[in-house]
Amino acid sequence: MNLMKRRANVYGKMHKSSTTTASSTTIEREIDCEVRPGGMLVQKRSEKQDVAAPNFRLRIAFGAVRYEISVNSQATFGDVKKLLTAETGLQPDEQKVIFRGKERENGEYLDMCGVKDRSKVILMEDPSSIERRSIEMRRNAKIQNAHRAISNVSIEVDKLADQVSAIENSVSNGIKVPEVQITTLIEMLMRQAIKLDNISADGEASSQKISQGKRVQKCVESLDVVKISNEKVKPVIVTSKWETFEPPPTTPPWELFD
Question: For the chain, which terminal residue's Cβ has fewer other Cβ atoms within 10 angstroms, N or C?
Answer without folding.
Answer: C
